[in-house]
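Please, structure for the following, as C-alpha cells.
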Amino acid sequence: MNHDFQFNSRRSCVLATRGMVATSQPLAAQAGLRILQEGGNAADAAVAAAAMLCVVEPVSNGLGGDMFALYFDAKSRRVHALNGSGRAPKAASIAELKARGHAAMPRFSGAAVTVPGAVRGWESLLTRFGSVPLARLLAPAIETAERGFGVSEWIGASWALGVDKLLRRPGFSPGEPEGPEQPSGQELLLNGRAPGPGELMKLPELARVLRGIALAGADYIYTGLFARKLSEHVRKYGGWITPEDMSLHESTWETPLATDYRGVTLYECPPNGQGLAAILAFNLARGFELGQMDEASRVHCMIECMRLAFADAQRFVCDPAFAEIPLRELCAEDYATRRRALISEQAAVKVEAGDPLGGLDTVYLSVIDGEGNACSFIQSNYMGMGTGLVVPGTGVSLQNRGALFSLDETHPNALEGGKRPYHTIMPALTTREGELHACFGIMGGHMQPQAHFQVLSAMVDLGLNPQQALDRPRWQLAASEPGLGAQEPGGRVLVEEGMALDTLEALRKCGHQLREFRGFERIHFGGGQVILRENGLLVGGSDSRKDGCAAGW
C-alpha cells in the first residue's frame, strides 16, 4: 500500500436530506448511519460511531479515555453540553510526585491516569436523548472487534509510534516506571508489533469488554472486576486510582459557552475544556473585517488573536468546582476591546494573560438526524494510546489526561484529588437565528481551538463550503509549550505545506518565526468533520488528513 501521506484532497461535499454522520474512519461513519436508517436519532448514532472508533482507531481513543458532546435538541432548539471527562483519584499528590523527582507531571506513568469518563458519558447522553438500547448500538463494534478490520495507512503509521510505549521498553520515556516484564500492551499488538497498513487486526479482549457493557451498562466499567483490575494495574505503575474512585465517577450536564460571530452563534463546552480559547479568539476577530483582508494580513491577524486567547485560556481554564473562573468578564465585549488593542501589524514578542477583573490524538464525529437533532461528539485518550498502560485481559488502553495538570500548587489547574484537568478536546456547534447551522469539530490537542477558528472563519468570512474549509492549509501556535510571543520559546508558528509562498514571506516580515510541516507531520494540524445544514440539505465535509468520510442518506 502507498505510504505517501500528502493529504491531497479532490473531494466534493456529501449531500443528503434524511441524516448524516461524518467521522475519521469509514466503518464508524457506516455504523452511525445504519442506526439513523433504522430509526435512531443523533445521540444513538453518535454512541454507535464512538464505540466503533474505539475498535478501529485505538491509536486515538478508547474505553479508557474521555468524551465531551454538544447536543442540539430540535424540539426545544436548545444546545446542551455534556462533560464526560474523568477526575484525578482522591489520593493524587503533588508532594508525592515531587518526592519521586518530578518537576512536571509525568506523561506515561500511572500518575497521569485519571478516571476514564467515556463510557459513563455514552450512558449519560443516551439517558437524556437516546432512543435505542445500548446493546444494539454496540453490536457493530463488537462484531468488528471479533471478526477483524483492515488497518489503514494513517492508523498503521500511528500505531507503530506507540509500540515502545505499549511494551514499556527501557528508555521509551525517561523517568517513567517500566513495571512488569510482560506488559499487557501486547493485547493491542500483532505478534509483538504494530499491525501494518492492509493487515487484518482482531481485538478479542476488547470485544469481550464491549459485550460486558452491552449487558450491564456503564457499571461494567465503573464497578466490579474491571474497576479492580484497572485500579491494580494503574497502581503498579505509580498511580493512585482505587475502585472507589471508579465507582464515584459521574458525567455532568453544563451550560455551553456561546458567542455571536457575523450572524452565527458559536457554542463550545465550558472549562475544564479549552473551548474558551476559541470563544475568546472569535470575540477578538469580531473587531476586524477578516473577509476583506488579503491572505497574509488575515492569517497574521488571526494568529495574533489566537496568541491572546491562548494566554487567557492557559491562565484560567481549570475545573470550576475547585476555582472560580471569571467567564462573564472574560467573554465580555469590553474585555475583547481592550485585548484587541494589543494587536498590531507586527507579531507580538511577548504575550501574557489579561486581567478581566481589573480592567496530540483524538477522534471526532458529527451527526445530524432527519428531525434536525445534532450531536457534536469528541473522544480521546490524549497522547496516542494515552499512557500505553492496558488493563490486563481487556485490550483497554488508559488515557494520560492527568499529564495536563500543573505541579505548581498556586495554579488553578494544579493536581488535586477529585479534580478534572485542563482538557484539550472540544466539540463545536453553531446556530443561526436559533436554527441549527453547523455541527463540527477538529481534533488534535492544542490545535483544536485554532482549527475551530480557521475552519469556521473560512465558512463565515470567506463563504467556503465545509470541504473547502477543511482542505485549506492551516497554521498552528505550539501552545502547549511555554511562551506564546514570537520571540519566546514555544512561540513559533507551525505552517502546513501548501500555504502560498508570498503569504509565508509576508508573515516572516511581520516577525513570525515559521516552521513548515510536510508529509505525515501534517497530522499535527488536526482532522476535522463538518456537517452544515442549509437550504433543506445536509452538506458534509471530512478532513483529508485522516481516513474518514461523511456518509448520508
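The two ends are 31 Å apart (CA to CA). Residues 496 and 522 are 6 Å apart (CA to CA).
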